[in-house]
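Before going further, learn to read the protein records used in this course. The integers have meaning only within a learned vocabulary of local backbone shapes. The record below shows the convention in full.
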Amino acid sequence: MDYFLTETQVMIRDIVRKIAEERLAPIAAELDETERFPREIIDLLAQADLAGVLIPEEYGGLGGGVVENCLVVEELSRVESGTAISFAATWLGATPILLVGNEEQKRKYLPQLAAGRLLAAFALTEADAGSDAGNIRTTAALDGDHYVLNGTKQWITSGGEADIYTVIALTDRRKGPRGASAFIVEKGTPGFGFGKKEKKMGIRSSTTRELIFDNVKVPKENLLGREGQGFIIALKTLDRARPGVGAQAVGIAQGALEASLRYARERVQFGQPISSFQAIQHMLADMATQIEASRALVYSVARFIDAGAREFSKEAAMAKLFASDVAMRVTTDAVQIFGGNGYMREYPVEKMMRDAKITQIYEGTNQIQRNEIAAQLIKEAASRKKK
């Protein structure tokens, strides 16, 4: 379908597609096998001025929005999803700075992020604070002109690779989530360390590590917004990121469909290509229809956010929920179309199936997304009734 992209958006999509097909595709299997961070591809994207796709022009970026981010993530995910999330992690880490950072913080970090000289990461999740994000335990105690951070963060994308981290920590334990604040923590700060590199089912080229804070002194000027705003900042960040997860899911599913079409035309059984069998044709038709519906929803929500919508938690959750469920169905069907070959690692679809699963889990499990959608629906219905 034609989504009436602007000339700039088409250019962004085409540049990323070229990089993905010519430079990323040849090393995709190796990245998965060796679990190597795709630094050379991240650098290529930066050289193409895409590291700053979401950063305002005044700070050296392209001044794009959620739509542009989704285009980049979808095209990368179509070829190698771990690289896509390695790229997107910097945007996730930079979003709190974009949302509430003061001018000094923006001038210090955004130009370097836009140029690709720095990578960022976002640190909210802990061992006992996954879906229950309000249950964080990492603390930040004010001591003179510094905050002292103690605790750990778990499953942090680009942990150890990123140069700066936006960290959510408690400045007032008595207030629970309302006592959380957000901080910029630089790699190399004394006491700030990393756990082992996690061995994951999918998106293996994306590095995932634990963050460890042992009396880490963070300057007061690295506080984002005000004390007590941390949890709100985290939720607003995730709302803006969820369409990106939807785009990742769309890209994975699109790659699986394209691989299935090629295979179905080449694979001969009973004297004819399996693409001539109606059972296969129906699977391909369903896959394509579901992908297009997902893409339409993701793009629509992204445009809704970029247009200045004040409230979009429900819609962002819908985009992430629907597209990720579709990605799981499509990749499962792709493995089925490949048959025994689909289960073998020399073919691409088993990797796509492994990669698809995480889109149903991170940045809020799909069960949590359903909770969010239902809560908003009930709230809206109650509001209408009062009127």
Summary: The chain has a mean pLDDT of 97. The first strand starts at residue 120 and ends at 123. Residues 230-266 form the longest helix (37 residues). DSSP finds eleven helices and ten strands in the chain.
